[in-house]
Amino acid sequence: MLRLHCPNCGVDCDETELSAGGEAHLTRFGPGSEDDDFESYLFMRKNPKGVHFERWRHVMGCGKWFHAARNTVSLRVYGTYPAQVTAPPEALLAEIDAVEPGWRNKEEA
Amino acid sequence: MTRYSAFAIAKQAMRHHMGWDRAWASPSPKSHYDVVIVGAGGHGLATAYWLGRKHGITNVAVIEKGWLGGGNTGRNTTIIRSNYLQDPSAALYEKSRSLFETMSQDLNYNVMFSPRGVLMLAQTEHEKRGYLRTAHANMLQGVETRWIGPQEVKRICPIMNIDGPRYPVLGGLWQERAGTARHDAVAWGYARACSDMGMDIIEQCEVTGVTRDGDKVTGLSTTRGEIGCGKLGIVVAGHSGRLAEMAGFRLPVESVPLQALVSEPIKPCMDIVVMANTVHGYMSQSDKGEMVIGGGTDSFNGYHQRGSFHHIEETVRALVETFPMISRLKMLRHWGGIVDMTGDRSPILSKTPVGNCFINCGWGTGGFKATPGSGWAFAELMAKGHSPLTAEFGMERFREGRFIDESVAAGVAH
């Protein structure tokens, strides 16, 4: 079972306490935006086989949102971080670099 | 190819069954094919089959990174039905169901199609209204289904407890000519027929890159060398996003694990397929006597072919109320497959922004039933550039807001 550390209330929670919120750090495009951007915002996802940054809500606990970095193949969790950021923290990225060398190239490819 | 028949079995019996040919050849890849299909699952092989059978294109390779039919083709719960709400879906799935009726004869391979009937249970008032609507829609679409009441449900499936208390059975949507088939045999039968037409089925050959000349696909880099192609068809289910990325376009698809499990074998007790969408469980009995149970998908992206453990408990717990007799069954094994989900829960059979490149994906949790129809329609799309059955399933529908919304109609088990 997947366990994530909620940075809001400090609890290590089971996935049954959580609700998955999909890919993190999307830029929102609303009415009046270009079709490409709107389609991309609504439907296009990276869906990576590897490192994935995603949103979670501690729905059966404190009820608050947070972010997690997780591997979609091994289910390894690299860390969780607060919801109030638009990009993963540098420290976490460095940690992922250490255990998954080359993952950024995969992301760009 | 030796034709399979009672006579052939008798003849082989005299020779201690030592004279059977391999069902399909395993050649090395040639340097160029008119059409290359990536993915030797049911859909990919069915596409190749219909390209040859209906459109006369036989210079075809089907390449597969693992082994033939080792992905979702061998992982599903083998349910075949066509009781969909939306017209484009009903047309495609009904075409597919009708092709299953004659598949064993067409392929000279016993796929064990068993039109035993599929019953979709209504266990809430909301679901009942939904299925009544589907029954009416199916009537207009020419798909034979009907609504039946709880007593009729009990008559068809006596092991069911229809009284609740939590989820009483209020009736069901009954499709008599729906059922199951042997999923591996579907892949093997198509592979044998394709090989017989001179097509190359190349296993253990992983695609590592897509070669383009300008905005057109010209070939593939694989772990077994470069392969040139006139047209490329991508039919790789959960890994569609990866292949699309190599070809240079994006897909509105997310991959999640879907789980299934089987019990120990027991005496025959249920001769239909039952789907209970409110509780996210569906069940049928295999010819070996195992109860085959399908569960829900994980709520988060994943390529781990096992899925979250708690879904098994949820699925079985919910089914136990409706089928009290399964409460003491031991479960033998469980597994997961990676399914590719689109925003409207309908598949994508489409041209792509890249020339000569076609994609067939997004079948989500219900691709097996569509195998022959998907191949039939996708082959027509690849050969002619358009097909009446795929017209509504283009990937541009997300941009244009023309969804084929089956997520509302079919819920999760789909």
UniProtKB/TrEMBL annotation, chain A:
GO molecular function: sarcosine oxidase activity
GO BP field: tetrahydrofolate metabolic process
Highest taxon listed in the record's lineage: Bacteria
The protein's name: Sarcosine oxidase subunit delta
UniProtKB/TrEMBL annotation, chain B:
Keyword Cytoplasm among record annotations: yes
Transmembrane parts of this sequence: none
Reactions mediated catalytically: sarcosine + O2 + H2O = formaldehyde + glycine + H2O2; sarcosine + (6S)-5,6,7,8-tetrahydrofolate + O2 = (6R)-5,10-methylene-5,6,7,8-tetrahydrofolate + glycine + H2O2
One GO biological process term: tetrahydrofolate metabolic process
Subcellular location(s) of the protein: Cytoplasm
Single GO molecular function: sarcosine oxidase activity
Pfam short name (any one): DAO
PROSITE patterns: RHODANESE_3
Enzyme Commission number, as recorded: 1.5.3.24
Enzyme superclass (EC): oxidoreductase
Limits of the Rhodanese domain: 35-79
Cofactor annotation: FMN; FAD
One GO CC term on file: cytoplasm
Main subcellular location: cytoplasm
Family: Belongs to the SoxB family.
Protein name, UniProt field: Sarcosine oxidase subunit beta
